Amino acid sequence: MAGIYIHVPFCASKCAYCDFASFPKEIGKQEAYFACLYKEMRSRFAELKEKRFDTVYFGGGTPSFVDPKYILGAMRLIKECANLSEGAEITLEVNPGTIDRNKLRIYKQAGITRFSIGLQSADDDLLRRIGRIHTRVDFEKACDVLKGYNLSADVMIGLFDQTKEIVKNTIDCAIAGGVKHISVYALTPEVGTPIYTDYLNGELPDGDEVADTYEFVVGYLKEKGFDRYEVSNFAVKGYESRHNLNYWKRGEYIGFGVAASSFINGRRFTNVFSIDEYVHFLLNGKYAEASSEVIEGDDAKFEFLMLALRTRDGVDLKVYKSVFGSDFTADYSKAIKSQSAYLSVTSDTVRIKDEYLYVQNHIILEFMR
Amino acid sequence: MTEKLKKNIRNFCIIAHIDHGKSTLADRLIEMTGQVSARDMQDQLLDSMDLEKERGITIKLTPVRMYYTAKDGNEYVFNLIDTPGHVDFSYEVSRSLAACEGAVLVVDATQGVQAQTLANVYLALENDLEILPVINKIDLASADPDGTKSEIEDAIGLDCSNAPLISAKAGINIEDVLEKIVTMLPAPKDADDEPLKALIFDSYYDNFKGVICFVRIKAGSVKVGDRIKTFMSDKQFDVTEVGVFSPGLTPKQSLSSGEVGYIAASIKSVQDTAVGDTITLVDNPAAEPLPGYKKALPVVFSGVYPLDGSKFNDLKEAILKLKLNDASLTYEAENSMALGFGFRCGFLGLLHMEIIQQRIEREFDIEIITTAPSVSYKVHLVGGEEIEVENPSRLPEPSSIDYMEEPIISANIYSPPEYVGPIMELCQEKRGVFLDMTYVDSKRVRLQYKLPLNEIIFDFFDGLKSRTRGYASFDYEICGYEKSDLVKLDMYLNGDICDALAIIVHKDKAYVRGRAIAEKLKEVIPRHMFEIPIQAAVGGKIIARETVKALRKDVLAKCYGGDVTRKKKLLEKQKEGKKKMRRLGTVEIPSEAFMTILKIDSE
Question: From A306, which residue of chain B is nearest by alpha-carbon distance?
Fold first, then answer.
């Protein structure tokens, strides 16, 4: 089982907190970009004949912002060149205001099964302050268009003057739109983004306030039937994102496009960040890898636990043994002992207790050699 | 040999306020007289050089021998003896001066007479040195040579009519300085016929030759093969090498009165060659030593522990090696509940302490934790016994103490008159007793205070600097012990007493300081998975409390395919940070926390 990730680095505009590979001014390069993307896909898939793929994820940027024919083209290519499972989960990220019935018709043709909507907040004033160009109504319209599909929504916390009431309204709005999966991310002010200035000026809530909001969200979503299956992800049973779960199980994935990362055959590599550079490499018949590392031994074990401990189910001891040939509880007996107050240990799993999931770095650190 | 002619020898030092151009002038003199470039000279004691340069001070003394053919046609031998530039080393300075007949006083023509100028001049006069004033930096636009001259004449009473006007940096009039050294500074007395008296003004340990003693021969002579002894130690040694500094060690057959040079005699420890001691011959000993010897006693004590407990032996090695070259450094092993095995080290002062700590970290690459400095208290027990306590955590139970005494210093503070108010306020806060105030001149006041040393080590320098915008300077000497109402202030972390954080304070200050330390610790201790109470207590009674709240958010919001490497890097960074922490029970404390509690008064 492996995943496919396709990066679409185009957007209508850049949000105030965004430091991702997304370039609103370079939409004119989409034709060249996708030509190269297809080239990369054909070439990689030819080398990965034996791999079986179960999920596809179009992320961005705003994948719904580009001409849908490019999405369709990518999916056709996958079906033609890769071994894609029957019933695969195929997710497309969309932003409210960039989706309509015409686009949906083509997405349907492409075989998209799941839409992840960038809601962030249902408060128009807050949306404006973080540089989003849509409104609550746009979200409601998008939900209407996408009715009947498996829907997910992204919600941000840690925003300016964000009250629990605003967060609650946002969640209510998402649920009313038919969303069955919600990702809740705390804003991370990155150096170089406009919001970093606000952060430096103390206009954003501090860690304790964010933790308060987060705790509220966990409780409220639980009430609404959403279970926290990963520190930032909540779903109605059966609606967990298979694509993302694969990351946390340290499964394999192949990423295409600028800044996309892959982890396959024990090697993790990441493509260059700029569109021009990417296109340049591909046109010259080369892959556009900017960095690459082979992960073995203790590093591999650590990655496995670091990712697994993000999830509700934690480290699956049987899986660990089958992957590494050793016992997790023996490999990490010291850390398990020193952190026992924060861990729940059974004969099958080791996981972080619910109430400590949000301070997991501190715990995971003790597992680091 | 030329140097046999005593009248052709000039032994002198250069004294100046900081930044007035002492080192630059020394470099120029060396360049003008000869062979060696200033850079080569600095290689011989490379170890301490980085630190010295960084701090703009001289720690180790580096004598240089120069040859100068004067206008009178004679060749002269100049021995320039460098002096350390800090109050911690005032005793070493006085011994260096005692090795000279004259001093070149450098005064910056743009700044005039400054505090350190005066302090140095007084020291030189105490040692009966002839002083040659030199006005430096005359090439600068703001230079006022005439004003500076009359200032020196008024403030110090030195005749400046013949003072060379120079620029050491631009190399102007250096020749004049060389000539005036010949004509104005006296030659040493010829005392070759008397028994040997060699003044040790510095020494260092050489792996091959043993201790190299820097000496000024005051009387008699010494040669290879002589059996020697010092007055303060009963050991005897056979001289294996004597020589001069030109500027490296240059062996000679003998040294005789008036000369400055070195003696090596397979001496194993600098302990046996204390600065200020007198070397004489076993066969024909001098009747009495040269005057002025004082045993260098440490006055500031601090616990030094390896950050990584397994590095104890490395630390021991490092301290032993430093001790080889530094007779004033003392140490004894101690064990702290909080920090494990380490050493209680004694230093001449705060700067000496800082230098030793930095050398351990830099030259021996051992990360260390140092506890807040303490002084040595005399504790009189109920039974009449008297003990000395240098480690606050070793203070006996209050009920068994009759009374305590603390070391007192007498301090001279030089400052422009406008800062007298703030300085007096500071001294009052520091339990100072006013002794005297005199106008050195219209721009300079000398304040004399008696102060407890224990207050000086708590941030007195910073307080003085900030209240006088850096214009005041300060020197002191220990003048005795006085009875005082002192208590031990204990700190508790998460309910456990932390012996390494204990300090001894005056009773009236315990509350304020306890509260300040608790607040400071709250700032420096990072949040943990649980809440950490910080308590300050005197005699088991809690006087202040702060709380480090439990950590609530420590997670990377997103961790998808591309984030794994990033997250790993983040954790690695956190791990690095943790390595700088010391775990006390369940609490991790950054190593600098033990020192930050000192910095509480400056805010």
Answer: B568
